[in-house]
Amino acid sequence: MLKDERDELCGIGRRLAGTGLVTGSAGNVSVRSGDLVAVTPGGMMLDRMAPADCPVVDMSARLVEGERAPSSETPMHLALYEATPAAAIVHTHSTYGAVVATTMSELPPIHYNTLLLGGVVRVAEYATYGTPELAENVRAAMAGGKRAALMANHGGVAIGRDLDEAFENARLLEWLCGVYVRAKTIGEPRVLTDEELARVVERGLTPPEFPRVT
């Protein structure tokens, strides 16, 4: 089931490891097709997965196909699929994302490309990984059309219309966090105003629309 989607999960897993957005077995990825979700397995390095390692679950988290247990963060993925039009989700433990998530309540708009993630990136309140509480906190942080969020003392999550877009949103989130952290070492970062961001929107920089659900 979802053979192509499971192939894609493996490819994204290798890219995440290769770019340093995940280390070891940290982080997880999923892709939705209808009422089924292919997700990375728990406890396995993402750059060593084969398609058969990736289980398929339904929207109630019931295992439909696969020998391995789904990622412990599957409840968070399913909560985001219920709350957003996303077709793919990437969760990372990237360095700068974790730094910002450990110290701040939000990532301010220090660069206009923040708009591609829906504006100010919120930091979801801390909760133990894999719990319904964390899933609900992340859902709240992503409300209002956000494409990414950080999780307090944990990492980041990004959504997209497909796995490539979710991956690129995760990369952009880490880049923005990295710019902020580095800027803090030489001074106080300048934050763009609402008016300045509005001018950028007028020039056409907005996140791509999710496909209309019919």
From TrEMBL:
The record's Pfam families line, in alphabetical order, gives: Aldolase_II
Q: Tell me the InterPro entries matching this sequence.
A: Aldolase_class_II_sugar_metab (IPR050197), Aldolase_II/adducin_N (IPR001303), Aldolase_II/adducin_N_sf (IPR036409)
Q: Where is the Class II aldolase/adducin N-terminal domain?
A: 7-181
- Lineage top rank: taxon: Bacteria
Query: Which UniProt key words apply to this protein?
Result: Lyase, Metal-binding
**Which residues, by range, are in coiled-coil regions?**
none
The keyword Cell inner membrane is annotated on this UniProt entry:
no
Which PANTHER family does the entry link to?
3-OXO-TETRONATE 4-PHOSPHATE DECARBOXYLASE-RELATED, FUCULOSE PHOSPHATE ALDOLASE
Q: Report the protein name in the record.
A: Class II aldolase/adducin family protein
Taxonomy of the source species: Bacteria, Bacillati, Actinomycetota, Actinomycetes, Streptosporangiales
